[in-house]
Amino acid sequence: MTSAMLAIWSDVAPEQETDYLHWLTREHTAERVGIPGFEAVRVFRAGLPGVCRYLILYDLTAPSVLTSPAYLARLNAPTPWSQRIMPTLRNFARGGGWVRAARGTGGGSHLLPLHLGHSPGGAEPLLDDLVAEDRVCAARLLEVDPEGSAVPTNEKALRGGDASFPGLLLIEATDDAALRRVMSRRQQALSGLGAGGEDPVLYSSVFSLRKAELRVEEADALA
After folding, report:
1. Domains of the chain: which residue ranges?
2. What would the pLDDT profile of 12-44 be if each residue is shown by its tens digit?
3. How far apart are CA 88 and CA 126, in angstroms?
4. CA distances (Å), 32 to each of 4, 75, 101, 148, 180, in order?
5. Could you tell me which CATH class the domain 4-222 is placed in?
6. What is the pLDDT of residues 55-67, one digit of tens each?
7. DSSP-H helix ranges across the chain
């Protein structure tokens, strides 16, 4: 699994959702994954009736990618499409840093992301318990680097301010039912990480892209 990540939440108005998804899948994620240090991306949609909420997870080689010249250059020169999309996003939250612990293999089609109330140190035994649950594929702990995540950029100015979080627990499974069982069986342990302050929301996968796939597209274009 990756050693660093960037997690981004935002809400989209229903009437703008198609344009948002086209922007993500046809321009934005490919632009980001093409930056040195960005290895892959996955996009998830929240199972919230009447709310179009998305979570984007980028795999990074290290947290220093968030302050690299190549990434900051993109953030300070957003494309025309990005300039149109960014001001429309609501409830925007962003945080990147080290993956402090990871267990399991691969990724599931269903995701339970839990904001943590404090740095996730010492939670490794819980990850072992989580991936031992039926149909749970993987679990990861992200510790957010507040300085690297808070660098002011032109793109951030378009949104009018971002929220963040100290840490993130990501639990992936093959179905929603498995994640609901985890929430029920491990409620006390999850609360101990500061993850009990909000109603959990389950997400399902809608899109993914790896850097290797970009290279294949570039090779095909040159053929």
Report:
1. 4-222
2. 999 999 999 999 999 999 999 999 999 999 999
3. 38
4. 15, 10, 24, 17, 32
5. alpha beta
6. 999 999 999 999 9
7. 17-23, 29-33, 69-75, 80-85, 124-131, 146-149, 154-159, 176-185, 187-192, 211-222
